[in-house]
Design goal:
The chain has helices at about 10-20, 55-60, 85-90, 95-100, 110-120, 135-145; strands spanning about 30-35, 40-45, 60-70, 70-80, 100-105, 125-130, 150. With about 170 residues, it is of the alpha/beta class. β5 (about 100-105), α5 (about 110-120) and β6 (about 125-130) form a beta-alpha-beta unit. Its cofactor is Zn(2+).
Length: about 170
């Protein structure tokens, strides 16, 4: 009996989603992996700094901001307790390992993370869930830097990696 073998994108994105299950953020679990060639060099997820109470223990630190849009002012809320997965990946991997590498991340990077990744030595970012708020400017940044930036559209994450309410 022959089993189907997953392609590399699916394999590494599955790992990113499994890594995301380590997150204790009740709003969103994000995972990322660093790959050079076909070798996994590092993983990270979003969460509070080491040794500090996380959102599940101390609650989210929500900051409200108002952003102008075509229809007027929109109220946005974001948690500032959590370090993003991409930021943790950059903190816990070496620059020499990032040179020429690919980052797989469950969610499209926000503007801040995209800026950091653009300066990290990587050559490609592969993500699954889009983040429309920053898509245009992140996409333009990646084009300017010559970093391949692509979404895996038909990908289905492993079923045991879904964020459950109250987790």
């Amino acid at each position: 009996m022959t089993s189907l073998r997953k392609d590399w994108d699916t394999y590494f994105m599955d790992i990113a989603f499994m890594v995301s299950t380590r997150s204790r953020c009740p709003r969103r679990h994000v995972g990322t992996v660093l790959v050079q060639g076909k070798k996994l060099l590092g993983t990270a997820y979003n969460g509070a700094p080491m040794g500090v109470h996380d959102c599940s223990e101390a609650g989210c630190m929500i900051v409200e901001e108002f952003v102008a849009s075509d229809t007027g002012m929109i109220k946005k809320e974001r948690c500032i307790r959590t370090i993003h997965a991409e930021q943790n990946l950059l903190l816990f991997t070496d620059r020499v390992d990032r040179e020429g590498s690919v980052v797989y991340v469950t969610d499209q990077p926000c503007w801040t993370c995209a800026n950091m990744l653009a300066n990290s030595g990587i050559v490609e970012i592969v993500y699954h869930r889009p983040y429309q708020k920053d898509f245009d400017k992140v996409n333009e940044l990646m084009q300017q830097r010559g970093i391949l930036f692509r979404r895996i559209g038909n990908y289905v994450p492993p079923s045991d990696t879904e964020v459950q309410d109250g987790s």
